[in-house]
Design goal:
The protein is α+β, with helices and mostly antiparallel strands. It has 19 helices and 17 strands. The protein is 60% helix and 18% strand.
Amino acid sequence: MKRYKRKILVFLIVSLLIVVGSFTILFLNFRKQLSLQDRILVLQANLTHTDSIITNLLQLESDKRAFQITSDISYLRNFYAIRTGCNGSIDRLKSNVSDKAIISIISEVDRLMELRLANMDSGLAVFRKNGPEAAILFMQDPSKRSIRERLAIQLHSLKSSFQEALQSTTAGINKKSEQNIIGLLVLVLVFISLMLIATRTFRRAQHRVIMNHLKFKEAQRIAKIGSWEWNFKTNRLKWSQEQFRIFGETRGEFELTYKGYLNHFPLQEQQKIIDLMHNAIETKTEFIIEHDIYRRDGTSLTVLERGSLILDKDNNPIGIFGTTQDISERKDYEKQLLQAELKYKAIIDNSADGIYQSTPDGKFVMVNPSMAGIFGYASPAEMINQVQNIGIQIYADPEDRQNMAEIITRQGHIKNYEMQVLKKDGSRIWVSANIRILRNDDGTVQFYEGILEDISDRKRAEEEILQLNKSLEQFANITAHDLQEPIRMVSGFLGLLEKKYAAALDEQGKGYIFRAKDGADRMSILIRDLLEFSRSGNKAAKKEPVNLESVIDLVQKDMSIVMQDTSAGLYVPEQMPVVEGTHSALYRLFLNLVSNGIKFRKKDTSPQVSILLNEQNDCWEFTVQDNGIGVPEKDQPKLFQAFQRLHRKEDYPGTGLGLVTCKKIVETHGGKIWMTSEFGKGTAFHFTLPKMRA
């Protein structure tokens, strides 16, 4: 509303300036017009005087000639009278003109006219003395004629000057008249426009007042805040519509008095309100009270009432203005929130995992009982009080804290981070940590919030499993080596038997030897694949940066003879990444997938194998795609199962352990593997490997 008041004030000032300015311009223009009209009168008089001089000079010539011809003395008397009039006209012209150029012309006319009149007087003297002929000859003298002609020219110039000035002034008057008419029209239009703008502005202001009132009512309804006013003199109340709704009353049916208001409270609460009002009036202070009211329909609400005194000019209380807010929902929400907090606290207190909050400077502000128990403290309070430096008293390895801090700062959280921590007695345990940052509104770190799980038992179990795996791997190596030797002996002696006693054996005997030798060879391959499969899942193998370009180069070299024999093509990216892993395992992974693409080729098509690379946010995605025979959809789930074969060994030799080995290698390196295939068109194996940690 203040904005509209300011706009109306500016509008009135601008309107006043426009009207005053317009009237000032019109007044000045009118005065200018009157001045021009006075000038026209002067110019008309000057033209009359100029015409009078020209006429009088002609009349002088005529009277002089008439006197010389008739000798009638009356012409001579008229001559001298007109001559006096010429001098008077010259004097009036001089008094009416202020322009220097015209004054100069008048002066020249006056001088020439004096010379002309003097010549006329001399001609009359010659006439009296020598007669008419001598007078005529005298006046026709070239010098006398020159004066007459120059006088005529100056009089014509003077008259033209006055005529031009008269035309110019007349045009000026007409222009000023047009300007005055246009000015009046503009003033009328401006006035009409100002009235329209004023009407529109006042309507907008009125609409704004109405809308503000409606918005105020709507705001009261949404916020559930009613307003009221108590007039001490009349003992009457004024209630807003929302106030009626809160108290469950209807306008017109409820007596708006202080007593009617108190009837919505029990007697004990009424006395409390009366005492509060009296205290506010006596101390001239505001009051606030939170209590329950009973509505007309018998229901109750919890309300928050505020009030402030209305004072007269003498600072005496004359009334109270206040608000009533329905806070029933807020109260219910506070109860629910309190119950949720108690429930949340119970969950935290009873959680088997350690839960905590710590400050950026390394102090605990909250730990649950499990957290205290994990670290060997009797209670959360003991742990909070005794641990003053988390970095020294909790972390067993300072590098863990530094590494975690870098990850949390970069990502805002950390998940399943395994590390060793120190208990109260200095012993070490393994925990898995999930930690996140809680920030203030300005982005600064407020707390670190985390959940810790004691994984010491799991770590011991994993260590035992690793030791068992190592023992099994050693057993597998020894067993494979011990089995390979007798199988090679059987295969060798069968070969010697076939070579030395070939002539003594019939076809059936040779078939027996061939089958026995083939079985021994397949047994040797199966033992080798089983040994490779057992090694592929070794998580304890040392991980190191592996440049996959060197891995692919090695695969290409080892597959070169097979690729040459089958006219196969192998297409690899121009640049392969460096990943963390085991070089030998990654070599077996790519070798198995590439050899599969060549082995399961179409009979009439050269095998084409492509290795594709796609960078993801946290990993590298590889695709080994071929144009081979493909895999039917129903058989695809079998591919990653051990000893599963989809073809006869005579068509496609193998033990069924290649893809299972690939799956173990990928999962051991923290990735996943899957396949897509279309029967008759080829197969694509997809797998991911994590990126190197910074």
